[in-house]
């Protein structure tokens, strides 16, 4: 991601293009391909010489934008999937490839994810 004078020069050179294209050309794209507009605008303002306060209000004291925040809400998608999301898996310390048994507790309406031990004979049924 460009910053400072390099960012201003590139943005000026592309000033006849849409904002999204300028932000992409300056490298403000996340790992998933999502445009990081807030980071782009913040960098532009700082490159112009204005100091912005950091937003380290909750949690890990890391300053700057932290992207989307966990809302502790989700919904069932049109295809029937229920997405938990990266914010929650990271907060729980889960790693890619970990496996879980899903238990549904109808009396409470809750879903439990129970970690599977590697090589466990208690593997979940494939057709559930």
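-> sequence recovered:
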């Amino acid at each position: 991601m460009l910053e400072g004078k390099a960012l201003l020069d590139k943005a000026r050179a592309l000033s006849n293009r849409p904002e999204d294209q300028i932000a992409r050309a300056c490298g403000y794209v996340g790992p998933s391909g999502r445009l990081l507009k807030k980071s782009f605008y913040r960098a532009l303002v700082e490159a112009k010489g204005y100091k912005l306060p950091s937003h380290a209000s909750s949690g890990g004291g890391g300053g700057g934008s932290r992207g989307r925040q966990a809302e502790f809400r989700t919904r069932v998608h049109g295809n029937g999937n229920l997405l938990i999301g990266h914010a929650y898996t990271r907060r729980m310390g889960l790693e890619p490839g970990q496996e879980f048994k899903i238990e549904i507790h109808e009396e409470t309406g809750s879903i439990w994810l129970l970690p599977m031990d590697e090589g466990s004979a208690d593997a979940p049924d494939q057709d559930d």
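Residues 56-64 have pLDDT under 50 and may be disordered.
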